[in-house]
Design brief:
The complex is a heterodimer of chains A (about 80) and B (about 500).
Chain A lengths: L2 H16 L21 H15 L5 H6 L3 H13 L1
Helix pairs in contact in A: 1-2, 1-4
Chain B lengths: L5 H17 L5 H14 L4 H22 L4 H35 L19 H17 L8 H9 L12 H10 L4 H34 L5 H32 L17 H7 L2 H16 L2 H12 L3 H24 L3 H22 L15 H27 L3 H11 L11 H8 L1 H16 L3 H4 L5 H20 L11
The chains are: A mainly alpha (about 80), B mainly alpha (about 500).
């Protein structure tokens, strides 16, 4: 399994937990408009959960500028390879 | 000077636009900044100095943050403290002193007698331009924006007259590119004119008459039931058309100058819940506070530690509900306080916060949606009925908040709330509001027209998206009627000027 696939596997678990939806599956293009209840509050909760799960911290610039899950995954993969 | 005034429309705007369009491209921002300072200093020239000082401090700090990134925290902290101290002093000094003296009097201690000359004058629009300037320096600190090279460009951003005194609050990232690369086209100018004319119509033809009705309601004490409800509806209409109309005029002026500002109102009275209402009402304020206050508080150490504490102790639902609820109390306290230096405004903010916090807690307590769970199918008629009911309830909740917004004191607000529930019982024919509406069919007609426009007509954004000759004729008719109304109206307040 590639790094990116592993990242998405873990992200799916986090998303399902944060949004209380066992059927939720995210892709590169998934954004706030695609997921019910993905508002500002959930976004920060999600960010915190991802940071804890991956042992890293997003910069505020990254938190505000990521447009979809793919952008989030890119940052995670990049940090994992550093 | 008000946008909806002869002074602005005939004496200020034409020469301002003429000078702007005659200026070579590289001087346009400087010219815009100069005419904006003239606009701002018209009522009180000393206010220009205040705005200039905020502009200079934040511009300088932006440069310093870029040049000395290892010390950026010091520079951004200085900007935040300077800007909020200035805002706090000019906006909240009198409020603070009154409360201090009340507290001293309650404890039987001597109060601070200060001379009238120390009573602080509130500079127009200080809340708006301070938040704008702050957004720049914070964005440079966060790395989401680059520091502006030219002081003229930055002064133009902070001071530009379309949105200077009443918003929308334009964050720097929303116009950063436009400062140097905006285009000036006939389509933009025409759309800008349409926005300005329709906004003026909203303000003069709808907000002002509704405001007269609202004034009757709030001047009375212990109104009969129907009068109190009509009174608060008229105030809701006034404040919506007043503020959204002014925002439309600001957007229109921006378009005439080549800027595209974001939407500030998105038919808020069509919302079906209070969270949705605040995604549609005064959007620029919510977005600003979300990005610079809400996110900062949520990602603070105390909040994340509290969340972690609940998660570790096995209380996942509390982890989702409690920290964010505490942040929301602070957030809505600030929303209320931003609107004005009065306890009624504070309670206005907290009142709305209650509904948002309820939504958060409700969501936190929901159970997981399990695999294979099918959604219950609801008939179209039931769905429409549910939506209509939700819209009505949301509007009524918003109206209750407007009582706090409008009342001169908490006691007055309490009286008004009581009258909304029929206390004390009054003769239904004794109220002034219904009498005014019956004696002046014009006001009653305007209230009905306002309701039709609010709940059925397209927004100005959509109406002006593709301008045709008939649409432009319609805009001109509305504008001319507004000009005519101005000549006969002596009543032309603007509510959000005091912020």
């Amino acid at each position: 399994m590639t790094d990116r696939q592993e990242v998405f596997k873990r992200l799916n678990e986090i998303f399902q937990d944060i949004f209380d939806d066992e059927e939720l599956v995210v892709t590169d293009e998934t954004c706030a408009d695609d997921v019910e209840d993905w508002d500002s509050l959930r976004h920060i909760t999600l960010i915190s959960a991802v940071e804890k799960a991956f042992g890293m911290k997003f910069a505020m610039k990254e938190v505000l500028e990521m447009e979809n899950v793919g952008a989030m995954a890119d940052i995670l993969v990049e940090r994992a390879t550093k | 000077m008000l946008f909806s005034s002869y002074l602005f429309i005939f004496l200020f705007l034409p020469p301002a636009l003429f000078l702007y369009y005659c200026a070579p491209r590289k001087f346009k921002n400087a010219v815009l900044a100069i005419v904006s300072y003239i606009f701002y200093g018209w009522t009180n020239p000393s206010f220009m100095l205040l705005m200039f000082s905020t502009t200079l401090v934040d511009y300088t700090d932006g440069k310093l943050i870029t040049k000395y990134p290892e010390r950026k925290k010091i520079f951004v902290t200085f900007s935040i403290l300077f800007d909020l101290t200035v805002l706090g002093y000019f906006k909240y000094f009198n409020f603070g002193m009154e409360n201090y003296n009340n507290l001293m009097a309650a404890m039987g201690l001597p109060s601070w007698q200060y001379e009238d000359f120390l009573r602080v004058l509130l500079p127009l629009g200080i809340s708006f331009y301070t938040f704008q300037s702050l957004s720049y320096v914070i964005d440079v600190y966060r790395g989401t924006a680059e520091a502006v090279r030219s002081f003229a460009d930055y002064a133009c951003y902070v001071s530009m007259f379309p949105q200077l005194v009443a918003g929308p609050i334009i964050r720097f990232t929303e116009v950063a590119k436009q400062l140097n690369t905006r285009t000036h086209t006939m389509e933009k100018f025409a759309r800008g004119l349409a926005f300005f004319m329709l906004g003026m119509g909203k303000k003069v033809l709808l907000a002002n008459p509704c405001g007269k009705v609202a004034d009757y309601a709030f001047a009375g004490i212990d109104l009969p039931l129907a009068d109190s409800w009509l009174g608060i509806f008229s105030y809701a209409f006034q404040i919506y058309f007043d503020f959204s109309g002014y925002s439309d005029m600001a957007v229109g002026l921006g378009l005439m100058l080549g800027f595209t500002f974001p939407k500030n109102f998105d038919s808020p009275f069509r919302s079906k819940s209070m969270p949705e209402y605040w995604r549609r009402w005064h959007i620029s304020l919510s977005v600003w506070l979300k990005d610079y206050l809400f996110f900062t508080l949520l990602r603070s150490n105390w909040c994340m530690n509290l969340t972690e504490h609940y998660v570790k102790s096995g209380h996942k639902k509390l982890a989702k509900a409690i920290p964010s609820s505490i942040v929301l109390v602070i957030f809505w306290f600030v929303v209320g306080l931003w609107h004005g230096s009065s306890w009624t405004f504070v309670f206005f903010g907290l009142y709305h916060g209650v509904f948002i916090i309820y939504d958060v807690v409700k969501t936190a307590c929901q159970n997981k949606k399990k695999k294979g769970t099918e959604e219950v199918q609801v008939s179209r008629a039931k769905r429409i009925a549910k939506d209509v009911f939700a819209t009505i309830i949301t509007f009524v909740i918003a109206c209750f908040g407007f009582v706090l917004f409008r009342a001169d004191s908490l006691a007055d607000a309490g009286h008004y709330f009581a009258s909304l529930f029929g206390f004390p019982c009054k003769d239904p024919t004794s109220g002034t509001v219904i009498r005014v509406l019956l004696q002046n069919p014009y006001y009653a007609g305007i209230m009905v027209l306002s309701a039709i426009i609010i709940w059925t007509m397209p927004q100005v954004w959509d109406f002006t998206r593709k301008l045709t000759v008939p649409k432009m004729v319609w805009c001109i008719i509305v504008f001319l009627l507004a000009i005519l109304a101005l000549s006969v109206q002596s009543y032309n307040p603007f509510i959000y000027f005091i912020f």
